[in-house]
Amino acid sequence: MTTMASDIEIAQQTALKPITEIAAQMGLTEDDLELYGKYKAKISFAAVKRMQQHENGKLVLVTAVNPTPAGEGKSMTTVGLAQAFNLLGKKAVAAMREPSLGPVFGIKGGAAGGGHSQILPMEDINLHFTGDMHAVTAANNLLAAAIDNHVHQGNELRIDVRRVIWKRVLDMNDRALRHTVVGMGGKTCGFPREDRFMITVASEIMAVLCLADDLTDLKRRMANITVAYDLDGNLVTAGRLGVAGAMAILMKDAIKPNLVQTTENTPALVHGGPFANIAHGCNSVIATKLAMKTGDIAITEAGFGADLGAEKFMDITCRFAGIKPDAVVIVATVRALKMHGGVKKTDLQAENTDAVKKGFANLAKHIENMRKFDVPVVVGINRFHTDTAAEIACLTALCRSYGVEAGVNDCWAEGGEGGREVAEIVLRLMEGPKTPYKPLYDAEASIPEKMKKIVTEIYGGKDVIFETKAARQVKELEAFGLDKMPVCVAKTQYSLSDNAELLGAPEGFVVTVKDVRVCTGAGFIVCETGNIMTMPGLPKVPAANRMDIDENGNITGLF
Amino acid sequence: MTTMASDIEIAQQTALKPITEIAAQMGLTEDDLELYGKYKAKISFAAVKRMQQHENGKLVLVTAVNPTPAGEGKSMTTVGLAQAFNLLGKKAVAAMREPSLGPVFGIKGGAAGGGHSQILPMEDINLHFTGDMHAVTAANNLLAAAIDNHVHQGNELRIDVRRVIWKRVLDMNDRALRHTVVGMGGKTCGFPREDRFMITVASEIMAVLCLADDLTDLKRRMANITVAYDLDGNLVTAGRLGVAGAMAILMKDAIKPNLVQTTENTPALVHGGPFANIAHGCNSVIATKLAMKTGDIAITEAGFGADLGAEKFMDITCRFAGIKPDAVVIVATVRALKMHGGVKKTDLQAENTDAVKKGFANLAKHIENMRKFDVPVVVGINRFHTDTAAEIACLTALCRSYGVEAGVNDCWAEGGEGGREVAEIVLRLMEGPKTPYKPLYDAEASIPEKMKKIVTEIYGGKDVIFETKAARQVKELEAFGLDKMPVCVAKTQYSLSDNAELLGAPEGFVVTVKDVRVCTGAGFIVCETGNIMTMPGLPKVPAANRMDIDENGNITGLF
Q1: From B134, B154, B551, residue closest to A214, measured CB to CB
Q2: Chain A residue with minimal CA distance to B45?
Q3: Both A223 and A83 in a single domain?
Q4: Which of A123, A284, B79, B160 lies 20 to 30 Å from B337, alpha-carbon distance?
Q5: B388: buried, middle or exposed (CB in 10 Å: 19+, 13-18, 0-12)?
Q6: Do B338 and B417 reside in the same domain of the chain?
């Protein structure tokens, strides 16, 4: 089955089953589905509700070391493991995030797994899919337009245009929109003010979509969103502007989970797509819970390294959803650890066990961190064909000496078959009794206390400082009594610290919080650190520039 | 069948047929469709191509008097007539535009017909539908991001940031985005420049979608789009930025026509949605041609009054597509003519035949205009329950004395049955021999000549003046040899003139052109007149504020 075909070639060669057959594996009928073509479907409210009466399956969380330009393959491993569980006789359902067009056209290309462990149809999933991203964009920007319109039409709520919190979004990497001035052009064009755009995945609407129980909860949460301060310094919520109903109408289909299949016809719920660096990084609770209700094993992933996605999965998603993983798989690659050990990307081909040993510090820190949440941990070594036997042996031995089981995963080349070793370890570890939920911090602690705990215990830093503006924002939130919520840290994904250059397992660093904002709809507080940006830019040669489509609709360059 | 139920109530009570059955009426099989739920489908490239071998049916264009706040019901009439033709034993297929979210949440509410003459499912059509609008937005904004990124990454093409023509778009009424500054924030955020956002329907991508023959033509046209001047004053096209392939990928599904059905299960192709005031106002050529290939009669509509949509249908769409309507129906209402005759909206209830007589001047001008294109003309009087018998009789007599046949249309209350009278007149008039295509102007004429012809012959004005900037733009386009294309006038829809206050049939006015830009992808030149804006604003109480959705997904307030 080994092949060097590209992801899109493999995708196009795969024989897909009608999505109705995939749904049947989950106990869903044709009536439970809203078809989007033959291979994609949304699952109705009624079906989601009916399934709630079923027993919960086990939950496996897939996370990773800090990403490097070498690539880790976390989504690929998630898909591969779901396929492997099926081969081992367990009914597995994957619950994953939807890709954003920003990275698709930026550096990364597609985000639907790879090789023989993909979710399909990958072209659709990587492009407009079932329109959820666009619905989030529209709902977000309807609220933004309503704010400026309210001010323009008399400003009954006395919104302070200097202190509008709500930002417009686009699902695009567009750095020119990071800092803007809107409302110029005189009396017919509203009141001028400074503004910013974010990428759609950073919208609080996306967070709300991923944390809501149902459409009613979604609407309630959207009405609760804080959009601005008034001239007296009070907070103004979206509900006051009267558009929460219209926003919910825009989200009525987006809240229904999407069903697709993997290259081996395993069901995959792909729903919601916040980034883990500038948002909370986990797919929707609705999809994860449905995967648990329809599978013996639900397998989900959290974005970027375990310092970001997994920490937020544990401290935000699990806290709100009342769930806890039965096992955590940390994806690591020889190549990534070599980069964490100081090797340049151009030198990765050469065997270098010393670098693996040095770079292991990054993996070790993530293992240690996951143990703090009191869950069984497995390392999934995603093999690349350039990895040498000595390097793999070195990494496996390092894991063993650290007291953690590790398995090698060949899911890229071999699909589910390549995931047997890791899947078997996971199954064995999940046989033990389930431990109670154990978050890292108490949500009732102050914002600085929560941040300090995350920085010192998860990131391995020595302290956190709040810049002047951020410190003032903390004081304000305390005065409003809005600080007793989980914290969602916006931070570079490349390092455990807030400095992208510090690879491996840095120590002694101080994390700088430059902005603090409350998400009263999502129910968390965002602390922006370092120089993280909520609107990415395109690289010198964007992935978009290699893409094309022929007269028959065949796509090239999307991978 | 008469009822005072709201549009959405009627829509929700209608028994829809599976879209596969509707497709079968058109000679399309299940394999020709990409289903979006049970009641919406896209039609495959292969099916569109196969149908091209069929004979053409007749083509009926529905247009109207200048719209007033009283409402005219042009889309409703289009749907009703399609249903009426079916009752008369003719296989009719409607070809219509997709609504934009801007008006849906702004003043207008939905745009899918009304009463017992709607296209369904109206909630979906009025919201995200099959995602075409969002695809246009994404393709438009990918190009915009590529422009600013190119400048940021070294600006090899020497793009002049003072002269970027391409604008970002959102499918939203958002006046604060009419005039903006982007690229602020220092070195990491690009080069600052003035910018504007338009509403998506005004994007040249939308025009290109509606004028393209197929995906290859779409890609070629998108590559031809002019995006900016360089520092030497040369034009820069989208193709130079290398993203036309990626833009085409984003549009790969949007270019496939959408099939839905009417309240009486008549097929309706709903595809593409440019406004007729700030764009060319006609649905896609692909859909109109497919309607002609699959129906004995294709019935299409052009936006707003006949001065805008119908003129552009004749001079732009028909010219490029090589088609010509066999008949034109001009929709008029007693209420609208009374307003054109000077009656205020609050006084419309009172019988006023004098005002009907006075306001008839507006209808008469549109009749005269349509005759210039050498097509049979019918007036469709859309009856409101407040119209008196005397008013209807007065209007009918006025039409007769003007030498045009008029029929009364009750399609709102009675569906197709209410359209019999108008449909019968149309059928009779179409029995005559087809006349050759006769546009208003020669595309080879200069821009001022073409504008003067439109202003004097269609609008009834005495002259056109180009403001300093517009005159300079004309000179530039002449120097580039890019002035030999049809003209797409951006003008208020409320008046035959460029002043929204001048109702009826004003004379002696001068139209002011303030901006001229070339659309080398679409193949026309946009002349913006008066104070028309390409980004609408929300009213004091937007339609969004009356909308809501309950826990079962039932929508209220969308009509």
Answers
A1: B551
A2: A552
A3: no
A4: B79
A5: middle
A6: yes
One domain, residues B119 and B190:
no
Which pLDDT tens digit goes with each residue over B81-95? 999 999 999 999 999
Helices B215-224 & B204-211, crossing angle to 10 degrees? 150
- Of B209, B234, B251, the residue that ends a domain is B251
Q: Could you tell me if residue A371 is inside a domain? A: yes
B60 strand-pairing partners: B299, B327
Nearest to A167 by CA among A189, A186, A148: A148
Using the 8-state DSSP alphabet, how is residue B36 labeled?
Answer: B
State the pLDDT confidence band at A2, using cuts at 50, 70 and 90. very low
| pLDDT at site A495 | 97
User: Is residue A552 predicted with pLDDT exceeding 90?
Assistant: no
Specify the CATH number for the domain of residue A349: 3.40.50.300
**Are B241 and B266 found together in one domain?**
no
- The mean pLDDT of chain A is 95
User: What pLDDT sits at residue A112?
Assistant: 87
- Domain CATH number, residue B523: 3.10.410.10
Q: At A163, which CATH number?
A: 3.30.1510.10
- Give yes or no: residues A343 and A415 share one domain: yes
- Peptide bond preceding A433: is omega within 30 degrees of 0, i.e. cis? no
Tens digits of per-residue pLDDT, A430-462?
998 889 999 999 999 999 999 999 999 999 999
Give the residue on B whose Cα is nearest the Cα of A215. B551
Is A439 within the bounds of a domain? no
Structure tokens given for A252 = 């009525």
The distance of Cα A173 from the centroid of its chain, to the nearest Å, equals: 17
**B405 belongs to a structural domain:** yes
Residue B1, pLDDT > 60, answer no
Residue range A501-528: mean pLDDT, rounded: 97
Q: Is A69 annotated as a binding residue?
A: yes
Residue range(s) defining the domain that contains residue A477 = 447-528
Q: What is the ipTM of this complex?
A: 0.95
CA angle A482, A487, A490 (to 5 degrees): 125
To the nearest whole angstrom, how far is the Cα of B269 from the nearest Cα of chain A? 18
Residue A102: closest C-alpha in chain B: B142
Question: Is residue B201 located within the same domain as residue B306?
Answer: no
Residues A542-549 have a mean pLDDT of 94
Tell me which of A107, A174, A551 to substitute to probe the interface with B (most B C-beta atoms closer than 10 Å).
Answer: A174
Structurally, how many domains does chain A consist of? 3
Contact B249 A558 (CB under 8 A): yes
- Does A46 map to a domain? yes
Whether A540 and B153 lie within 8 Å, measured CB to CB: yes
The answer to whether A71 is a known ligand-binding residue is: yes
Tell me: do B300 and B405 sit in the same domain.
yes
DSSP-derived secondary structure for B503-544: -SS--S-EEEEEEEEEETTTTEEEEEETT--SS----SS-GG
Task: List chain B residues with CB under 8 Å of A153.
Answer: 539-540
| Residue where one domain finishes, among candidates A251, A283, A315 | A251
User: Does the annotation list A73 as a binding residue?
Assistant: yes
Choose the closest CB to B549 out of A138, A252, A558. A252
CB atoms within 10 A of CB B554: 12
* Residue A220: partners with Cβ closer than 8 Å, 6 or more residues away: none
Structural tokens at position B204: 């040249």
Domain shared by B107 and B139, yes or no: no
Beta carbons of B37 and A35 less than 8 Å apart:
yes
Give the residue from A170, A200, A203 with the most B CB atoms within 10 Å of its CB, the best one to mutate.
Answer: A170
- A166 by DSSP, 3-state: which? coil
Nearest CA in chain B to A531: B188
User: Contact A173/B148, CB-based, under 8 Å?
Assistant: no
Query: What is the structure's pLDDT at B109?
Result: 65
- For residues B177-201, give the mean pLDDT: 97
Nearest residue on chain A to B238, judged by CA atoms? A545
Which of A184, A218, A251, A535 is the best substitution to test chain B (most B C-beta atoms within 10 A)? A184
